[in-house]
Amino acid sequence: SDVSEILLAFLKSLEKENDSIPGFTVYKTKLNRVINEVEKIKDHPSLKNKYEVIYNQANVLLVSNLESSLADLVVTLVNEYNEIILWPKEDKKIVFEVGVLSYKFPTLGELIMESLSKEFNFQDLQSTLRFFKEYLQIDINLDKETKDNIIKYQALRHVIIHSFSKIDEAYLRQVRNTKFVKNYTIGTKIKLNENDYVKARD
In terms of DSSP H, where are the helices of 117-193? Predict the structure, then answer.
């Protein structure tokens, strides 16, 4: 069967499931954008057989979905369940871009998430684990294979978006402690496949 049709069916099913869930605006917008891009790729004759483009974009979506979901979790916790958060003992300034006030009035949770984004990066596994440990007192223990896969696909997202899908020094630096450190060299073109997609998704 056509890989692009399978991917589109999955993405549209995901879109339908999330329609009834409030919030997640950033993620929903990204999801809709990816669906439109995949439809264009699917229908373009010159790209018909280049399915690695689809899988590359699917990886970007999966990693971005995780980042957006974690950010929304922080906003919800601050706004509705702030008593479970372990706030730092020392005073910290809330730093955010003033420009955000020009198009909406943010909640306290959104302001704090904006400020925390300068300290924690939810596209980086170690940073994410540190946030859960410091602010929620939750130790997340992952087996080596799961941890390595998460780090790999998070690093590949950066490569796909910022490095024209070619391995760069930032990727090698991010995966330096994983089993994937020797899989690629600088300049290697990333061509993800269905197996990569399944591993990234799971």
Answer: 125-136, 144-162, 169-174
Check residue 88 and give its pLDDT: 82
DSSP 166: B
Rounded distance, CA 136 to CA 139, Å?
Answer: 9
60 CB burial (10 A radius; 0-12, 13-18, 19+): buried
How far, in Å, are 21, 30, 95, 110 from residue 106 at the CA level? 20, 20, 13, 6
Quick check: helix, strand or coil at residue 87? coil
- The residue-averaged pLDDT of 29-54 equals 72
Tell me the pLDDT tens digit for each residue of 169-197.
Answer: 999 999 999 999 888 899 999 988 888 98
Determine how many CB atoms are found less than 10 A away from the CB of residue 163. Answer: 17
In the chain, the percentage of residues whose pLDDT exceeds 90 is 49
Long-range contacts of 106-113 (CB under 8 A, 24+ apart): 107/75, 107/78, 107/79, 108/78, 108/79, 109/74, 109/75, 109/76, 109/77, 109/78, 109/79, 110/75, 112/74, 112/75, 112/78, 113/71, 113/74, 113/75, 113/78
3-state SS of 168-186 is CHHHHHHCCCCCCCCCCCC
pLDDT surpassing 80 at residue 95: no
pTM of the model: 0.69
Contact between 109 and 75 under an 8 Å Cβ cutoff? The reply is yes
DSSP string, 39-68: HHHHH-GGGTT-HHHHHHHHHHHHHHHHHH
